[in-house]
Specification:
about 70 residues; 4 helices; elongated; mainly alpha
Length: about 70
Protein backbone atom coordinates (compact mmCIF):
# COMPACT_ATOMS: atom_id res chain seq x y z
CA UNK A 1 0.00 0.00 0.00
CA UNK A 2 2.99 2.28 0.19
CA UNK A 3 3.67 1.78 -3.51
CA UNK A 4 2.52 5.27 -4.46
CA UNK A 5 4.88 7.11 -2.12
CA UNK A 6 7.73 4.69 -2.81
CA UNK A 7 7.30 5.06 -6.57
CA UNK A 8 6.95 8.83 -6.33
CA UNK A 9 10.05 9.13 -4.16
CA UNK A 10 12.08 6.79 -6.37
CA UNK A 11 11.13 8.73 -9.51
CA UNK A 12 12.24 12.00 -7.88
CA UNK A 13 15.49 10.66 -6.35
CA UNK A 14 16.80 8.99 -9.48
CA UNK A 15 16.34 12.03 -11.75
CA UNK A 16 19.86 13.08 -10.71
CA UNK A 17 21.33 9.55 -10.93
CA UNK A 18 23.27 9.70 -7.64
CA UNK A 19 26.70 8.06 -7.96
CA UNK A 20 27.58 7.45 -4.30
CA UNK A 21 25.72 6.26 -1.22
CA UNK A 22 26.16 9.70 0.31
CA UNK A 23 24.63 11.37 -2.74
CA UNK A 24 21.77 8.86 -2.67
CA UNK A 25 21.12 9.50 1.02
CA UNK A 26 21.15 13.27 0.45
CA UNK A 27 18.76 12.96 -2.50
CA UNK A 28 16.36 10.78 -0.52
CA UNK A 29 16.39 13.14 2.45
CA UNK A 30 15.89 16.20 0.23
CA UNK A 31 13.03 14.67 -1.74
CA UNK A 32 11.25 13.42 1.39
CA UNK A 33 11.40 16.91 2.85
CA UNK A 34 9.98 18.35 -0.38
CA UNK A 35 6.87 16.15 -0.33
CA UNK A 36 4.01 18.51 0.40
CA UNK A 37 1.84 18.13 3.45
CA UNK A 38 -1.16 18.13 1.11
CA UNK A 39 0.18 15.03 -0.66
CA UNK A 40 0.85 13.27 2.64
CA UNK A 41 -2.61 14.20 3.86
CA UNK A 42 -4.13 12.80 0.67
CA UNK A 43 -2.18 9.58 1.02
CA UNK A 44 -3.06 9.36 4.70
CA UNK A 45 -6.76 9.87 3.86
CA UNK A 46 -6.96 7.42 0.96
CA UNK A 47 -4.56 4.59 1.72
CA UNK A 48 -5.86 3.59 5.16
CA UNK A 49 -9.24 3.09 3.49
CA UNK A 50 -7.65 0.94 0.81
CA UNK A 51 -5.12 -0.81 2.97
CA UNK A 52 -6.00 -0.55 6.63
CA UNK A 53 -2.98 -2.02 8.35
CA UNK A 54 -0.22 -1.06 10.77
CA UNK A 55 2.43 -0.72 8.04
CA UNK A 56 0.54 2.07 6.29
CA UNK A 57 0.14 4.00 9.54
CA UNK A 58 3.78 3.42 10.50
CA UNK A 59 5.06 4.59 7.09
CA UNK A 60 2.92 7.72 7.19
CA UNK A 61 4.10 8.51 10.73
CA UNK A 62 7.71 8.02 9.67
CA UNK A 63 7.25 10.32 6.66
CA UNK A 64 5.61 12.99 8.82
CA UNK A 65 8.59 12.93 11.20
CA UNK A 66 10.64 14.66 8.51
CA UNK A 67 8.37 17.68 8.83
CA UNK A 68 8.66 17.96 12.60
CA UNK A 69 10.38 21.16 13.70
CA UNK A 70 14.08 20.63 14.35
CA UNK A 71 15.18 21.81 17.79
Amino acid sequence: CDYFLRGYLKSRVYIEKPQTLEALAEAITREIREISLAMLDGVWTIYPLVCNNAWTRMAATWMMSFFAPKL
